[in-house]
Amino acid sequence: MFLLDTHVWIWTVEGDERRIGANTRRVLARAEAADLLRVSPVSFFEVTTLHVSGRVHFNRSLDQWMRDGVAHVRVAELSTDIAVDAGHIPRSALGDPMDRLLVASARQLDATLLTADRAILAYARGGHVRVHDASR
Question: Domain containing 116 — which CATH number?
Fold first, then answer.
């Protein structure tokens, strides 16, 4: 199973292949065919916040983008176990609370987090979470 980091989800929905590495495009295609792609409710919050603040723009309404965004993925559960796990991740390791929730989600789902976030990739090198560098 693969959990998409928010930026990878955006790139995927937007078809932004220049940001997603060739290997990752193959991983995404295989995972989608096997129904193994997940997106966290945290990412819905992040996408909405980015859109409302004007940091991302879509060529369709946010509601339509969200509907398109879940066409090929399943929405993962955001459980109390995930929240507690995220709370144990040191802020010094991952300053962004949304990143901590995504990492904890991947751990609790026993999923690989698809991300290009350098802080998460560095945290993963310590064996804390399985990741796949989406830029590759």
Answer: 3.40.50.1010
